[in-house]
Amino acid sequence: MPFAKPGPAGYSFAVSTLMEIQDAVTRLPADEKTALSLWLNSQAAPALSAREEQQLLRSLDEAIRDVDAGRGVSLADAHKLVVSWAAK
Question: pLDDT tens-digit profile of 51-83?
């Protein structure tokens, strides 16, 4: 989806090349650059190697088995734990 860029007499035309986009970004106010940066970062795919992905999947499978076996904590208790860890 191209960006709109002011043209002659107030008309807009599409911004479609990387160079045009970079130029348009330089003219954004600081708060809009920050918002754009946050949005762009949210679009990036997680950078997991195949090995890391397999480890994550094994850990999630183990966690599911633990919860199914009654070895979990309530959401309220998990929240308290996270708050206590964040306070350290």
Answer: 999 999 999 999 999 999 999 888 999 999 999
Average pLDDT over residues 10-25: 78
Asked if 12 and 4 count as a contact pair (C-beta separation under 8 A), the reply is: yes
Alpha carbons within 13 A on the beta-carbon side of 25? 14
Residue 9 has pLDDT above 60, yes or no: no
d(CA 56, CA 69): 20
Report the C-alpha gap between 9 and 56 in whole angstroms. Answer: 55
2: its two tokens: 């191209």
User: Which pLDDT belongs to residue 62?
Assistant: 96
Please answer whether residues 39 and 28 qualify as being in contact, where contact means their C-beta atoms are separated by less than 8 angstroms.
Answer: no
The answer to whether 15 and 21 have CB atoms below 8 angstroms apart is yes
Block residue for tokens 């070895």: 71
Q: Which residues pair with 5 in a beta bridge?
A: 13
Which amino acid appears at position 17 of this protein? T
